[in-house]
Amino acid sequence: MARREISVAILGGGAGSNAEALIRYGLGAEAPYRVRLVISTRDDAGILDVARRHNVARAVLPPTGWESALEHYLKESAIDLLALAGFMRKLPESVIDALGGNVLNVHPALLPRFGGAGMYGLHVHRAVIASGDKDTGATVHKVTSGYDEGAILAQRSIPIGDHPAPEELQQRVKQIEHSLYPAVLAAYCMDMNAQTDMDPTCRSMSGGPKSTTQISTESDLGRKIV
Questions:
Q1: What is Dmax (Cα atoms) for the chain?
Q2: Would you call 123 a catalytic residue per the annotation?
Q3: Contact yes or no for 132/145 (Cβ under 8 A)
Q4: Whole-prediction pTM
Q5: What is the pLDDT of residues 26-68, one digit of tens each?
Q6: Residue among 54, 72, 107, 163 flagged as catalytic
Q7: Which of 1, 2, 148, 170 is the S-S candidate for 115 at Cβ 3.0 to 4.6 Å?
């Protein structure tokens, strides 16, 4: 049976290096997903430039009412799965439920260590170095209403080395993220299709498959996808 291409949206607010990796992987001939929308928390974020270079639709969340705006963007774009990449807020349970739990994130440490509120960016790497641990790495996990509490899907580790600067460690971990995240997302999307083959009633927000592990340019709410 032919596999349905999973429609993915990326939500973030940073430079967009993970978004770039996810988009590029999804352009492959055998990729089970395609990134259809990039949503940013900031209108000056590099992640929007990444989307523009790849001709991916873009949207920016408003300062207030962003939760309803996010749900609107996802529904209007018929998104099956949401991939977080530099999103620092708690995701509303209504969004997670509407997507059938198909929301993933990559974290720059080996969860469950060094996760939770305040553990992002260089804060994570400073904590890792201060801990005296020998290894660090990246984790791809499902997203729940709590910070970094969802089921771990995959991890990859590297040795920390002798007294690295936090910035150096961050760059080394990012290299892991850029290969791990797309591969795990692809495997997850293949599982979504497999679950649909077994249970045709299993659907996400878009009406597409949901895992058990058409863009409107202007809405009636004045929210715009470009």
A1: 56
A2: no
A3: no
A4: 0.88
A5: 999 999 999 999 999 999 999 999 999 999 999 999 999 999 9
A6: 107
A7: 148
